[in-house]
TrEMBL record:
Protein known as: Uncharacterized protein
Amino acid sequence: MVKNSVNKKPDKTIKKRHRFFLNPYSDCAFTKCPKCDTKTKLRKFPLVIHIEPKQLFLLNKQCKYCPSCDLIIAKKQEIEPLMAATFVQTNPQIVGNNYVVMGTVDKKDWKEGDKNLLSTSEMIGRIYVFKDVWNFEVIPAGWYPNEEK
């Protein structure tokens, strides 16, 4: 008897953890959470970055973190030079390509990946994708006229 595998769902579920904001502002440090206004903490997170085409990059990066919102804030101006410095000798054609910070991995998985003990497919299976990616617009301080409704 032949089973129909068209209606089968994949066995693996995508693991999700944390919310993420890639801070594009060079003059904004986000010492307070932009969502809940509590003080942010400094924490190291092993970030997984996908660079076009088909390149995974693991970066253990110190980021701002809001425990209340479970929000990681990473500065774009700090990530890009680290990626460029890493690939300028080994793979210079991907320097400047589009990238996306897709999630995190556990510290032990980052250490194994850093020592090249894990294949790319094994690393992909261990990624915690971000629950949500947020964007915030910074409004400069100052006096603004009242909006009439």
